Amino acid sequence: MEELNSIADSFKNKSILVTGSTGFLAKLFVEKVLRVQPEVKKLYLLLRVTDAKTVTQRFRSEVIGKELFRVLKEKHGKGFDSFIAEKVSLIAGDISCVNLGIEETNLVETMWKEVDIIVNSAATTNFYERYDVAMGINVLGAKHVLDFAKKCVKLEILLHVSTAYVAGEKAGVILEKPYQMGETLNEVSGLDVDAELRLVEERLKELHTDDVEPHLERTSMKQLGLQRARHFGWPNTYVFTKALGEMVLGHHRAGLPLVILRPTMITSTLQEPFPGWMEGTRTIDTLIIGYAKEQLTCFLGDLELIMDIVPGDMVANAMMAVAAAHGNHQTETIYHVSTSVSNPVNYAVLLDSGFQYFTKNPRVGKDGRHLETHRIPVYSDITSFHRYMILRYRLPLEALRVTNAALCRLFQGTYDDLSRKYKFVMHLVDLYKPYAFFKGCFDDLNLERLRRAVAEEEKAKFCFDPKRIDWEDYLANVHIPGVLKCMRK
Questions:
Q1: Residue 238 catalytic?
Q2: Is 90 exceeded by the pLDDT of residue 406?
Q3: How many CB atoms lie within 10 A of CB 409?
Q4: Quick one: which of 22, 26, 5 has its CA closest to 462?
Q5: What is the CA angle 423-426-429, rounded to 5?
Q6: Beta bridge partners of 267
Q7: What's the confidence (pLDDT) of residue 248?
Q8: How far is CA 271 from the centre of its chain?
Q9: What are the Fatty acyl-CoA reductase C-terminal domain coordinates in residue numbering (predicted)?
Q10: CA-to-CA distance for 193 and 241, rounded, in angstroms?
Q11: Strands (E), 110-185
Q12: What is the DSSP string of 24-57?
């Protein structure tokens, strides 16, 4: 790979289309581009809204209104609004529709003439999303972005953001290789994207014919997604449909320059534009918040296994480096943005870092008193976990239920509180069990080659080297405080 001397210069005078613009990662990418390359020609930001007025409101509240843009605002001062107005073009659309749902014909034609780079980060990341919704965004959406990209006469690269967990529950070293159309994780045959889309249509038609209530339709479509995912070897609807989206892109790209980026669990920023920025609740953050709110009293998992997390700014830096390195390359390339090979960290470090943080910064209970910081029990086998849950929750709940029946619901508040904690733990275990016992590690040889190709003077400005992360310091002093700050907003 040739040396990358100036990543920022690769974006000078370029027009970039970004989908999923209100998402966590897309915002990091947009902010970084605007901060390091003010001479970018245009950022077309696609937002899922219905009209021009709504798109502006959403952009101001969900994108530039965020603290993430504080450094950029300080840099431009009073000229910030005019800078944004010059560089950013807001597009009302929806990738689940043809032509990305953009209704203005003139705008579509202008974009086909002007766009140099497309970054597709739009996705539904809900593990148990409705199957029709997940197929519409993660699969059909990817196809619609590809179709749009093929009409962009100047296009240098389509960068598609996927997830490393399209690997399902594989163990061992997982390579940076593409999926072939119809490939499954359990060697069950018959996976066909068009057939899955027809199945969705048929099920919806049946539900509408039977005139089922909306909540029952929602439950049925969620169950269908989970059933189809597990039938072919994936643990949930999200990673299954992201894998299908990759297959569609690889199969139909017809020589279009394509890079698929597969990040692992994305966490708060390590350095840029400042440490600890994040929004939303993702993966390990649910455990941190659950403990902070006194909802998490135990967990199921193996503390010695690697948790593959990567700071969000490193992912954004990798996105820019990949786009700079692969412009006009008529190939499909896969990149894992991961840490499990280059700088592995296990779940025990998260537990220790949490204990360290909350010891220094005690939690405050509802009565205003400081709560004692303690280590929650983590069970590495399902039998011990269920024994604990029976003793800690099920038996007391049954006793409270009987007592409430006899004493006119005298202890109903206590029962409800204990019941909420029980449901919270069981929900988390159901959600994260495939990852708490995940025994794979993600090879990042392609990304390592790219790191080596980045010029020395660029490596600090566009850092995506996991070996530079001090996990204990990052988790205790950057990430956990960032999660709690986000929780309090």
A1: yes
A2: no
A3: 12
A4: 5
A5: 150
A6: 311
A7: 98
A8: 19
A9: 405-486
A10: 10
A11: 117-120, 157-161, 172-174
A12: HHHHHHHHHHHHH-TT--EEEEEE--SSHHHHHH
Q: Is-contact 267 310, C-beta < 8 A?
A: yes
Mean pLDDT of 94-102: 94
Residue 228 is predicted with a pLDDT of: 98
Say what percent of the chain tops pLDDT 70. 100
- Which residues lie closer than 8 Å to 15 by C-beta, 6 or more apart? 41, 42, 43, 44, 111, 114, 115, 116, 117, 154
Query: Which amino acid belongs to residue 443?
Result: D
Please list the alpha-helical segments (H only) found in 161-213.
Answer: 193-209
193 touches 244 (CB < 8 A): yes
Neighbours of 480 (CB within 10 A): 25
CA–CA distance, 32 with 26 (Å, rounded to integer): 10
Q: Tell me the helix, strand and coil percentages in the chain, rounded to 5.
A: 55, 10, 35
Compute the distance between CA of residue 285 and CA of residue 310 in angstroms, rounded to an integer.
Answer: 13
pLDDT confidence of 256, banded at 50, 70, 90? very high
**Which residue out of 14, 242, 393, 432 is catalytically annotated?**
242
- In angstroms, the CA 241 to CA 228 distance is 10
First to last CA, the chain: 44
pLDDT above 70: residue 165: yes
Asked if pLDDT for residue 378 goes beyond 80, the answer is: yes
For 27-38, the pLDDT digits (tens) are 999 999 999 999
User: Which residues lie below 8 Å from residue 357, measured CB to CB, with a gap of 6+?
Assistant: 475, 476, 477, 480, 481
On the question of a cis peptide bond just before residue 311, with omega within 30 degrees of 0, the verdict is no
Distance CA(339)–CA(443), nearest Å, equals: 9
Q: Does the structure show a pLDDT above 80 at 338?
A: yes
155: helix, coil or strand? coil
pLDDT for 410 equals: 82
Please give the full DSSP string across 399-414, using - where no structure is assigned.
HHHHHHHHTTTTTHHH
Tell me which of 238, 347, 379, 415 is the catalytic residue: 238
Report the DSSP pairing between strands 15-19 and 42-47: parallel
Closest CA to 35 of 58, 5, 59, 64: 64
pLDDT in tens, 257-289: 999 999 999 999 999 999 999 997 777 888 899
